Structure formats: C-alpha cells, structure tokens
Task: structure prediction
Amino acid sequence: MSDKDKVIIFDTTMRDGEQSPGASMSLEEKIQIARIFDEMGVDIIEAGFPIASPGDFESVTAISKILKNSIPCGLARSSKKDIDACHEALKAASRFRIHTFISTSPLHMKFKLNKSPEQVLEAIKESVSYARNLTDDVEWSCEDGTRTDMDFMCKIVELAINSGAKTINIPDTVGYTTPSEFTKIITTLKNKVPNIDKAILSVHCHNDLGLAVANSLAGVSAGARQVECTINGIGERAGNAALEEIVMAIRTRNDLMPFTTGIKTELLSKASKVVSSATFPVQFNKAIVGKNAFAHEAGIHQDGMLKHRETYEIMTPESVGVKKTSLVMGKHSGRHAFKEKLNDLGYADVTDDVIQTAFGKFKILADKKKHVYDDDIAALVDDSMVLDKYVINLKSLKVFAGTGEPQKAEMTLDVYGEVKNTTETGDGPVDAIFKCIKVLYPHDVKLQLYQVHAVTEGTDAQATVSVRIEEEGKTTVGQAADTDTLVASANAYLSALNKMIIKRKKTAPIEHETQKVKGI
Result:
C-alpha cells in the first residue's frame, strides 16, 4: 500500500494514559512498556510531559535512548519553557517529535486561557515556529478542537502548518463529538485549508460517550492518517481510543477501511498485560484483549464454534497473541461443548451413559457456581464413571447443625432398589451422616481417613471429600465432589462403601448381599 493508505499509530499510554487516576507508572515500568511498543511497531511513542515533573523528564529521556524503531515524542504547552524541556529530554535520540498544543474553543479560550482569539493565533505562531527550529518533526494540537468554531479552526490550522507543523492533531478532548460530526470536521479541513496537503491530519479522541474508537475511525475514513490512542484505552476520565481496537478494526474490516498499520498484532495481548500489570486490570469483556474476548459460554455459540469457528469469531485469537479460543463451561453450555471439553481433559473414551450423568451434574453445579473450572468437571466425571455400578445411592439429605442443639441428619437412600430413610444424631454433622448410612445399610467397617479439600478457589468452590474404609483387611477409597461439603461427605462414604461391596462380590454371591440388606 502507498503512504496515503498507511495509518500512523501514535501511542500516548505513558502520557495521556498515565493521567488516568491510579495509572502512575515507575521508570522501570515505562521502559518495559516502551520496549514492547517498539517491538510491536508503534510509529510514535509519546513518552511523557517533560516539564510536568523531574520524573516525567527522566522517563522521556530514558525512553528516547532505548527506542530502535519508534519515534519518541514529548508534550509541551505553547511556551518556550515547555518546548525547551521537551528538546532537552529528547535530544539524545537520532530523531524525535515535539508535540505542542493550545486550547482553541471559545469556552477554553475564555475560562481556561483568558486569551482572545488573536492572542491564541499569536501563541500558535510563536510556539510552533520555536519548536520547528529545534526539530523538523513538530506536531500541533488544538485542544478542545471538536468544540472550536469551524472557521476559526481552518484559520489556525493553516497558520500552524505555515509555522512549521508537519502533523495537525484534532482532539476530541472531552469526548463530545459523534462520528458524523467528526467526519464533517476532518472533511472541512481537507477542503478549506489551502496548505493541508503539507501536513498529516491526526485524531485524538476521548471516550466520555463511549465513541472514541468510532470517532477515530470516522476521522481516518474522512482522511486523517494518524490516530492517537492508548493500550487498553486508559486515560483521563473514561479514557482514550483503545489502540488494539483501532488496529484490529482496520485489519478485520479492511473491506470498508482499506488502510494498513505497521502494528504486529500478535503482540497486542502481551502489550495489554504489561500495561495492565503497571496500571489496573482490564475488564473481562474488553474488546480484543479482555479475558472473555475469545471465550464462549452459550451452548448455541459453542456448538457453532465447534462446527465452524467463523460462526461466532470475526478474528482469530492467535492474531492478537491469545493461544486459543476458550469454551467457558457454564450454565449456558450445551452437551456438544461439554463432550468437547471432556476430550480436551483426556476423557475421550468415557461412555455415553457417563457423559449423560456427568452433564446432568454439571448443569446443577453450573447453577450454583459462577465459574466451573476444568478440575470441577474432572471431579464430576470421575464421580460418574463408577456411579452406574453402585447399589447404594443418596436420594436426599438434610443436616441440622450449629450451637445449642445436637447435630442431626435426615437421610434417604436407595439400597438395592429399596428406598429407605432415617434420622440420626451425632457428635457433629458428619458423624450424624455416617450413622444414618450405617442404620440404613448395616455394616461394620473402620473409618481410616476422612479428608476435605477445595477443588478450586472461592467460597463457592466444590469440596472434594476423600474417605478410606477398611473391612477384614480389604481397603477402599471413595471420593465425591460438591459445593456442599456435607453432601460430598455422604457421597464419598457411599462411594467407598459401594466399592467395598464390589470387592465382596468376588468372594460372596450377590444373594448374600441382598440377604444382609433385608436383615435375613
């Protein structure tokens, strides 16, 4: 593609992004971020506001020395002192940009600057000319540009270009504009500013109305060829246009926006994580780099994804540096996705009956838990794989526990097809549960082990209970998982007991067991 089709990516994560409350970065963090941006192919890196503080000056200086591909840039108000600080911080770089600005809307000129339009014109001429004497790469911005009078904007843009600015940036400083309005602004500048061909038009949009990316892309479609943005969309108030969204929108909808960027998109996820670790977490449903950006839970979506990826994904996770699509298992997941998850977990050979049983348990668990993890599913399947061989199964359980009253359990069991129930008290809820089992199925075993651990994190985690029992030298171990530890305890004991019955069958006929149950 020609230069006319190239969109320059100007990153201001370390300047505008750092102005976001709570996003202050150390020098070491900024250098780490700068290195990944340089590798990723960011064209311009606005490293800071040198006059703002000694720390900002130091970071701009340090970053300007390490960049191999990207052009370092510093921000300056329309004053010689600011511009000198920029030059001093950047001068070690073989090439650098000075970015100077002044407010131009009637509101800002009156209440912020206390200057007349004529005074603002003079300040633009002086500051841009002064910066141009220090570098041939000068960018000028009209702060609050989208609330600036259009005739005045055309006049000041022409003046800035004549004074030496090679890039003219139109900021939507307060996130006020809309795509159609911003398109009109850029189109008007291209049509009415006589020397506009001597500069690159840039856009810098804030997200106060959630339109930063849409407005930026509207500006590009209208003729702007630089976008100012930040990773993860961080920035003041509601943030800036998100770099990753801009880049991937252009790449994905190249049919409507036939442009290119120099960004290695496979590094976007890595860059997002580096910035996030230095600032604050990314929301789960954040486009492109959020945890859920390539995750599918709804059964209909999962089924479509398994049949053909493009049914529900417009870009590949690999294209932004994510290893693979994630089929998130939750209450909306279907049987197809559940079976696929079992294959991924190594349960490719389980029978349909086991899958059916485990899927039913999974649906019940998913209604209780916000996140169903792989370990949760494995525990369910392990539990279901032997369930069809059991002759004693839990039908219902109620437990009464606490202070001041004896612990009591009410239990109903299916014992060899016969439904039985009882109520027993114990030294604790687990003791009461185990007594119920002994009453409903008389047996004499020694409890060698009772152990509980959480399968996954959180207060809604499944508890896995392990029980080991011993009878006449034979030992069996039962395990069960449930979000209710007491239910898991009952099922773990029953699992061990059922396994003991299976062991007995090797030396005693089933009639003997039936007689024992009926008390014969």
The chain has a mean pLDDT of 86. Residues 295-385 form one domain.
